From TrEMBL, chains A, B, C:
Pfam families registered for this protein in UniProt: YjbQ
Family affiliation: Belongs to the UPF0047 family.
Coiled coil: none
Organism expressing this protein natively: Sinorhizobium terangae
Domain of life: Bacteria
Transmembrane residue ranges: none
InterPro entries (alphabetical): UPF0047_YjbQ-like (IPR001602), YjbQ-like_sf (IPR035917)
Protein name per Swiss-Prot or TrEMBL: YjbQ family protein
Length: 140, 140, 140
C-alpha cells in the first residue's frame, strides 16, 4: 500500500492542478490495478475533479463559489460568527464543505481511469499563500 | 479486484438510477466483504446517493440545482466566461463540483451496506442526450 | 477487513463529532496502514470533515446551509413538491446532496492521516431526534 504526501504552494483562491503528480505516483508504484485515494489535510481547501481543457472553467468555478459564499465582511454575510481569522476564513470552510475532502479513483493498466477531460485539482479557498498537503494512497 | 464500466444513456437533466447494476456487479464478483468504489468519468455529470422511494425527491433535487445554478443565458449569470459549449455547459460543471465524482460503499454479505431508502444515481447536468461511463471497482 | 456500524443519536440539525469513535476503531483493528471508509446510511443526514477547534464554525456551517436551503414552508421554496414528510425533509435531502455520503481517509502508523484541525462529523439535517448509522470499513 504505497502512500505519499505531496505539497502544493498556493497563491490565493483558485484551482491548482496536480494530475501529473498523481499519475507519476501511480506509475512508480508498479501497481497495475487498484484504487487511488486522494485526501486533503485541510478544512479551508478542498478537492475537485474538473475539466482541464479550457482555463475559463477554472475561473468560472472560483467565481461561482465566491458569489455563493461571499466574504464575511459582505453585508449579506453579517450572520457569520467565526470572523477572527479573517473575512475569507469561514467562507473557506463553507466552500470546503460544499466540495470534496477525498476522492477515490480506480486504477487500471497502471493508470487512473479518468475521462478524457478530467483533471485533479486542489481548490484553495483562502486569500493568502498556503502550503497544502495532499495524501495519495494506492490500495487494493 | 473486479472492475467494470457501465454506460448510462441520458435524455436530459435529471437523476438516473443504477442501483441494480451495482448490486449485480457485487453479487457476480463472489466477494463477500470489501469496498465498492463508484467513479464517474465526466465533468458535467456526477453521482448521488438519494432516496429512491418518492420520485418527487428526484424532481425537487433537479429543480433545486437548476435554481441555484441557472443557465449562463440567465441575466444573473452574465459573469460566466465559458459559454461556447452552450448555456447549460458551465452550470453543468458547477453542479458536478457541488455533488460527487466518486462514492465509497462498504460491502458485507456480498451486498452494499445501503440504508433502506438509499439508491445510486447518475446526475446528468446537460440538456442533450449523452452516454455516460461509470466505473465500478470492488476492492478490499 | 474490519467493519463496524456506529450509531449517533441526534437532537436536531447540526454537526455531531465522531472522530474519537473512528480513532478507536482504527487502533483496535491492529492495522497500521490502509484506508478507512466512512459511509452514512441515510439520505437526510451526511458527513463532513471540518475544523474542530472553534464551535462557532459548526454553528456557522449549519446556519449557511439553513439559509441556502430554507424549509419548504418558506415562501421562496414553494416550488418543492415532496412536502408530505415535513418542511425540513426535502431540504434535508438537498443538503445531503450538497455534502458527503462517504469519506476515504488514509491510515498510517495505525492513525487517520487527518490534518491538525480536522474532525469527523455527522451532519444532521432533520429537526427531530434520529438514530443515525455510520459504517466504518478498514481496508487495504
Amino acid at each position: 500500500m504505497p502512500q505519499t504526501v505531496i505539497t502544493i504552494a498556493t497563491r490565493g483562491q483558485g484551482l491548482y492542478e496536480f494530475t501529473d503528480a498523481a499519475t507519476d505516483f501511480v506509475r512508480q508504484s508498479g501497481i497495475a490495478e487498484g484504487l487511488l485515494t486522494v485526501f486533503v489535510r485541510h478544512t479551508s481547501a478542498s478537492l475537485l475533479i474538473q475539466e482541464n481543457a479550457d482555463p475559463d472553467v477554472k475561473r468560472d468555478l472560483t467565481e461561482f463559489f465566491g458569489r455563493l459564499v461571499p466574504p464575511s465582511s459582505d453585508p449579506t454575510m453579517r450572520w457569520i460568527v467565526h470572523t477572527q481569522e479573517g473575512p475569507d476564513d469561514m467562507p473557506a470552510h463553507i466552500k470546503a464543505a460544499l466540495t470534496q475532502v477525498s476522492l477515490g479513483i480506480p486504477i487500471s493498466d497502471a493508470r487512473m481511469m479518468l475521462g478524457t477531460w478530467q483533471g485533479l485539482y486542489l481548490f484553495e479557498h483562502r486569500d493568502r499563500p498556503h502550503r497544502r498537503e495532499i495524501v495519495l494512497h494506492l490500495g487494493a
